[in-house]
Amino acid sequence: MLAVGPNGVGKTNLLESLHVATQGFSPRTRTDAQLIRFGASAARVAVRGHRATTPVEIELVLETGVAKRAKLNGAALRTAEQLRGETATLVFTPDRLGVIKGAPAARRAYFDRVLGRLAPARAHLPAEYGAAIAQRNAALRLRSNALSAWTEQVADLGTQLVAARKEALAAIAPPFAERAGELGLADAELRYDGEPPTVAALEARLERDLERGITSVGPHLHDVVVAAGPRELRSYGSQGEQRLAMLALLLGEAELIAERRGFAPLLLLDDVLSELDPARRRILAGRIQQGGQALITATDAAMLPWEPDQLVEVGHGTAR
Q: Considering the chain, what is the average pLDDT of its residues?
């Protein structure tokens, strides 16, 4: 599906609504009130489709001052975020380049979401480790007797998280490199920068941690290096190369999700064509056509090098 229209008429809003409906949260903001139209007190998104051969119907309701509510095939979910375990959606927006060129925290957060999508049974690890770090930091500041127990917990959960991250990277690295090569980014690779925390390593930094009140060892400080040959793209990649790397990550993960979960994810690609040359547009279009469903936004239908299955013309508050 191709959504076209001038800048500022709501194409990104349409794309965002599909992400909210299928994942339970916005890729743009974590403040749900920002998803409700100005002057309104509530919003509703409803979608219907199929996951492989299984019919899927989702309804999500947002109200000011109330937690958002979601239903899947008529059954209420405990939280709207449960939708991400039921449906798979991958999104590209221009600010997604922060994953490549931003601080390590942006990459950690992104690849932890990749981990959750590829290995749902381990999706809890980042949150559990984060909670353990918070408890250890509190114990450090209070010089609590519980510090030793939290040190062991951080070492245990941190080791599990590092192993899970490395497994996820090992899985996505080959398709990432292949898709990047197709797009003209040669020798692309992913490297994990960090080692599992041990009790010995944590205790060796104890005096410094007590002084500062924070834990200075562990995967909450690690990074994922996105590189092309010897060049780390965060520091030495052009914006064009960073864009290609982000696209290659999405396409590589889409392949893995289709392989592991038995259905292709929904791809949401916002303004992805405007910064690609015609040859790369054709390569991207060919890859997208090979499977799954995609919504692409553009200001001009001519940017897409093939006839879309569905063309949606977006105006101010309308989609035709």
A: 95
